[in-house]
Design brief:
The chain is an alpha+beta fold. It contains eight helices and 18 strands. The strands form five sheets. Strands 1-2-6-3-7-17 form a six-stranded mixed sheet, sandwiched between helices. About 45% of the residues are buried.
Length: about 350
Amino acid sequence: MEKYIHLLKSLISTPSFSKEEEKAAEIMRNFLTKEQISFKTKQNNTWAFNKYFDKAKPTVLLDSHIDTVRPAKGYTLDPFKPIENGDKLFGLGSNDAGGPLVSLLATFVYFYNRKDLPFNLIFAATAEEEISGRRGLEIVLPEIAPVDFAIIGEPTKMELAIAEKGLLVLDCYAHGKSGHAARDEGENALYKALDDIEKLRRFKFEKVSEVLGEVKISVTQIEAGTQHNVVPDVCHFVADVRTNEHYLNKDAYRIINDILESEVKPRSLRLNSSGINELHPFAQLAKNMGINIYGSPTTSDQAIIPFLSVKMGPGDSARSHTADEYIHKSEIFMGIEQYIKILKELKL
């Protein structure tokens, strides 16, 4: 087990911001080479098939990401220096998603040489997850298809997120007419934007999910004006929309567009809500093991997967993207044991 902690330390020591994951990918490939596991690559993505891969069997994907966000401003420790303090391992990416990544890898290695597996396993260490980029898992999926089920490694305290919300980011533009602020002229785009923002504050989508709850709309940015004495003719604001499984992003966009006076432009429609229901064999196994099942409000690589998937991993999402990020080594060891236990009993 210690070799996976050593691997995580190597990853922490290696800056791997989104789109800059080359060295982290090299570390993963060197590890697989030492384990005598052949692998395939595409840009900064790496994946491997179990030794006795059989196309006649269903396939399970074990995926997590190697990229990190940039360090939060409040860091008191060196984000690129793995520091152990008792059971805690500090460092950027230790929790999100280094712990889940090495735990899924350990699980894959455990099953790699098994001839009697009832399903195939694919391990993937992918890029650009933190920015929902298009050169990460999205370019790997066509290379490994077909896949029947996926476990996405994210810090969930090894609880099972059977569903996650989608993400829809909307750029909204209220249009007015410029004029001198001292005179009663022009049409103030900022006031128009505020009217639309109030509509969003009060609006409720009709369908509420039993697992994910309501669709959530948050206005997170606003900008307008060039100087104090000019009535602004354009006001730009951004709405962050988290959709549940009842609404595809394209439908949520249409509904919001219909209620606003502002021009509404979606940045992307591809990050939809995803997951499984509680009757799926994986969810039933988790429930029987006493594992908590819930719906996740955050978005991951699950959003781009066209087949059934769940999100599960050691660590705590509350620590992600925070200063002095850490994970407990015991969380990693327990995560590996739990992954192995549930996959031993899984029947697809």
